[in-house]
């Protein structure tokens, strides 16, 4: 649950559209799927920019879209984005230095 909150916060800082309150990863998945499908129809450059910002693997995305036969491309993109942002959040948690570990002379 804690990861989900941080994932939602990450997306709030990266997506220009306001995100509704979400409590579960499934709700976020559904919203992202709808958002990606909407961007596919009305603003493809914004979708590409979002995929780059999230750092989704272009090769993997192309492969999965090809294998799915174009069935719900938004869901495929949403899955990849969620997967990548989850990795980002976990990595930040793992390498975050606790506030107490900073020597007093190095604090701002």
Beta-strand content: under 5%
User: Unreliable runs, pLDDT <50, ≥5 residues?
Assistant: none
Give the biggest beta sheet.
none
Mean pLDDT over all positions: 86
Question: TL;DR?
Answer:
By secondary structure, the chain is mostly helical. It has five helices and no strands. It has helices spanning 2-14, 25-42, 44-54, 58-68, 73-95.
Features:
mainly alpha; elongated; about 110 residues
Please tell me about this protein's structure.
The chain has helices spanning 2-14, 25-42, 44-54, 58-68, 73-95. It has one domain. The model has no long low-confidence stretch (mean pLDDT 86). The chain starts with a helix and ends in a 13-residue tail after the last helix. It has 5 helices and no strands. With 108 residues, it is mostly helical.
Task: Please render the helix and strand layout as text.
Blueprint (H helix, E strand, L loop, with lengths): L1 H13 L10 H18 L1 H11 L3 H11 L4 H23 L13
């Amino acid at each position: 649950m804690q990861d989900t909150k941080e994932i939602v916060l990450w997306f709030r800082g990266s997506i220009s559209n306001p995100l509704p309150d979400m409590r579960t990863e499934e709700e976020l998945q559904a919203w992202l799927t709808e958002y990606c499908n909407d961007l596919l129809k009305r603003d493809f450059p914004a979708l590409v920019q979002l995929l780059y910002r999230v750092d989704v693997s272009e090769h993997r995305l192309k492969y999965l879209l090809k294998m799915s036969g174009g069935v719900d491309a938004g869901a495929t993109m949403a899955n990849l984005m969620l997967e990548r942002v989850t990795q980002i959040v976990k990595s930040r948690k793992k390498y975050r230095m606790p506030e107490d570990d900073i020597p007093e002379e190095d604090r701002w």
